[in-house]
Amino acid sequence: MQNSPVLLPHGRGRNSERHFLVALRVGLKYRAVSDGVRTHLKRFTILKMALAGTDTMDQDEPGETFLFRALRIAAVVALYWFISITMVFLNNYLLDNRDLDAPLFVTFYQCVVTVGLCWLMQLLAKLCPGLIDFPTVRFDMKTSREVLPLSVVFISMITFNNLCLKFVGVAFYTIGRSLSTVFNVLLSYVILKQTTSYQALLCCGIILGGFWLGVDQEGVAGSLSWSGVFFGVLASASVSLNAIYTKKVMPAVDGNIWKLSFYNNINACILFIPLILVFGEVGRVASFSRLTDLGFWSMMTLGGVFGFAIGYVTGLQIKYTSPLTHNVSGTAKACAQTVIAVVYNSSSKSLLWWTSNMMVLCGSSAYTWVKSLEMKKSPPKDSQDSAKEKLLTAEKSNLGV
Fold first, then answer.
1. CA–CA separation, 44 vs 46, rounded Å?
2. What is the helix (H) or strand (E) element at residue 161, kind and residue range?
3. Burial class (CB in 10 A: 0-12, 13-18, 19+), 90
4. Global confidence as pTM
5. Cα separations (Å) of 142 from 138, 148, 152, 253?
6. Distance CA 394, CA 240 (A)
């Protein structure tokens, strides 16, 4: 845009000209300051968008500063990492107990704890409605029957997850259970007839390559457990099936994930009883030397509490960041978890072993990034459904460990 010629006002000679020049100087200075403020605000907004992991920034809540929001996000992410990593190591400790070979009983007890915590949260929500938000759930037989097919998949998922962790340990656990994304693509095509882009398939190829390289390196090191690999593959398939069936069952529980967790765990408690009897775990539990030890039951209960808490902190992390940021955080957490396990066990791993881990983690992160770009290009309704499915997949994956 061309500058307009400056017209000096007619009037009283030099005084009028001097006043006009002073006013023009002040106006130019104000414009420069205004442009600087706008630039600063624009940079500030971009920084907030990057931290929140979203494309658009919501309006700040009254009284919240940028520093407060940043510290809150950091605290939520740190809490998610702490609970998730601690839960994995705690479950590994409980399942690796040579005196009690009863993985089904351990998983059953954690489901009982989850049901008890759901009742407790309902009570606290009634006593402190402004502080705790939890839905009121009354057991309904019809709803329980509608959720039952999902509950069968659910107990398969958490059982195979725990069996995989029992046989492979924490260090190899990330690789052992890394095929969830691959099964998600495969089963979405077989069951839902949903196709996948070539970019996403390439990411799945990287994950598969990392999985096979990791299995090969475990075999070279002499620490490979084929039982653990087998249960890891079954766990990955169960995680994907759980996400698909969850999407179908959600209307039966009014779309509330906590109601679904309540009914899922009640059904699981009932379904686990015949399984425990069939696999002969009743006798092992009865002959366990620490059956009356308060410390043992405290650790068992703590495992159930962490299993319940991971669902809550997963929701918090997604709420204050985004589903994409949550998946990136989960990938970084898995990497840290592997390093901690190797250091804790004083293990020595080869360069190719670490390469297999990085292939799995980078492939998973790339897949999440590709799917997030595809969701932005899809229609609003499809985008919301895809986001919900991805959220449920991530949450159920974490609940199962």
1. 5
2. helix 141-168
3. middle
4. 0.72
5. 12, 10, 16, 11
6. 10
